[in-house]
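Recall the central idea of this unit: under ordinary conditions, the amino acid sequence of a chain determines the structure it adopts. In this exercise we apply that idea directly, starting from the sequence alone.
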Amino acid sequence: MLRFEAALDVAAVAVKLNEEFGLGLDLGRVAFIRSRGSRSRAVARTLGTPSQWRFVLNPGVLYVVEVIAERFDHLDCAGRAWVVLHELLHIPPSMSGGLRNHSSPAFKAMNRMRRRVEAMCRDGRV
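Accordingly, the structure predicted from this sequence is:
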């Protein structure tokens, strides 16, 4: 059975990455959740919430970042931070409700970010 819970640890990592890399995201408009029992092969995913759902459920939440516990939780610090950074890069700075795809220039710069992510983990900043 699929279960969801708040992922406060993931949100905390996202805050640090947002600051470190100057992503300029309003993370108060992003919900971070952890799923258990998913059959997905993904480690994590970012979803834009449709405007109708925002109207009915929570108008403040534009995006949902979901980590799949079975694939995410066993990763080391750098692996978890890398996955969260990847998911944050799907969210455009304008936070318009849309999502960036992997051909976006933000993803092309991702490899240059790897050393900084690893250093953040080594220094205990994540």
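The mean pLDDT is 94.
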